[in-house]
């Protein structure tokens, strides 16, 4: 998925450096006619290392650089001097990046901490110099080991946005508008489906200088778990959120049905998503008069049962503080107090 500078999925070809050759040098100096072997070892080839960087938010730079190569190790030399190790190639990625083997699609590892390092392709070992092979029966070996080849791999990097709250809803449900109102983020907003083609992050300023992060994720459509529309490319961003905020407009035909469809898509993609805390926000509630809202509230209490919900309006600035309070409580709820949904 990409829009502008936001890239969250790239395929790379990485290759570590080859080990340097061992030296087959024989010691020579004035007055020493037949010196022994003194060839040094070759240096290790450079590793390809993936490193977490908390200041990065996208895989954008890899849109132009798909081949990563580390330096070869230097050859050994006389006087048992070892060759220098090849320079490692560092691949800096945002936190929340999953590394997969492109051929098998298996997860190799994932980066979740700043400065965390993972060697993705080890450099080849340097060859041993000829002095290692000296023996009582072979005083002057004239051979040494070549360096071993480095590793070459095809890997896929997938970014899963790290945020406290994930906004879940159908296209045009008002997620971008809500994010623009409760945070300083400025997502693109328009009255058509899939305005948001990338996750937008915003920091919500809460009471007493506290804060939490909300991610506006592209809207779900039925069949997203099977890859329809934007499909699993955006569903994976929800995996990192600890709380899910379902946003459903009050003017839809059946609010509970829309909620059930959203939950079903998440369940089919990854059942573990249903273990997260949930909150339903009924948006655009400024369209309801007090009588309609009371009637709808009574109906939703029957439909949702223990699932918490509230009415908000981003445009009219209604219910937003209550929304922040509820989200903060969910984010800081102790495990034993968590709701059984």
TrEMBL record:
It comes from the Bacteria. InterPro entries: G_OBG, GTP-bd, GTP-bd_Obg/CgtA, GTP1-OBG_CS, GTP1_OBG_dom, GTP1_OBG_dom_sf, OBG_GTPase, P-loop_NTPase. Residues 4-162 form the Obg domain. It is found in: Cytoplasm. It holds the Pfam family MMR_HSR1. The keyword 4Fe-4S does not apply. Residues 163-332 form the OBG-type G domain. GO terms for cellular component: cytoplasm. Mg(2+) binds at residues 176, 196. Its main location: cytoplasm. GO terms for biological process: ribosome biogenesis. Keywords: Cytoplasm, GTP-binding, Hydrolase, Magnesium, Metal-binding, Nucleotide-binding. Belongs to the TRAFAC class OBG-HflX-like GTPase superfamily. OBG GTPase family. An essential GTPase which binds GTP, GDP and possibly (p)ppGpp with moderate affinity, with high nucleotide exchange rates and a fairly low GTP hydrolysis rate. Plays a role in control of the cell cycle, stress response, ribosome biogenesis and in those bacteria that undergo differentiation, in morphogenesis control. This is GTPase Obg. It comes from Haloflavibacter putidus. The lineage of its organism: Bacteria, Pseudomonadati, Bacteroidota, Flavobacteriia, Flavobacteriales. The gene is obgE.
